[in-house]
């Protein structure tokens, strides 16, 4: 059996655990919705790779994009966050929106995660989530522009990667426009997001 099979099997357990915990979470514990930036932040040049080819600054233009950073060996946070991203994707598909929305999962562990494996991993949660990765330099550039931090802790074979758990919203001009954290209320978040879409010039 190939490595991606075991990764998917492992994340299935993590996803089950995350969903189980979400059922016992109270509304009081839920995080606030979208934090919109007063001044959208420009994104500099970067170049990552996906199964469909190059993913770069130009790929962000012309539609809204929601991006999440992580890695395939992430035991619980990434599967849980990706399941939440899939919920947003599904809900937005049900609604008439002004602009299309792209969903992107960025692996910050290119040493172990090929772009084809990242693509397969992302599709496990939702067929509309694009999986990308690239060189450490390009990953760092893109992450910095989105206000996302990550650090690879090399050493053992099963090394860990520390990273921010933030959903970044890029507007159709290709600028960082907002962000939100896991644990959001789906109805509130989707309403806020679609209102911003309608008001976007």
UniProtKB/TrEMBL annotation:
It comes from the Bacteria. Keywords: Copper, Disulfide bond, Metal-binding. The keyword Ion transport does not apply. GO terms for molecular function: metal ion binding. InterPro entries: SCO1/SenC (IPR003782), Thioredoxin-like_sf (IPR036249). Cu cation binds at residues 74, 78, 163. This is Protein SCO1/2.
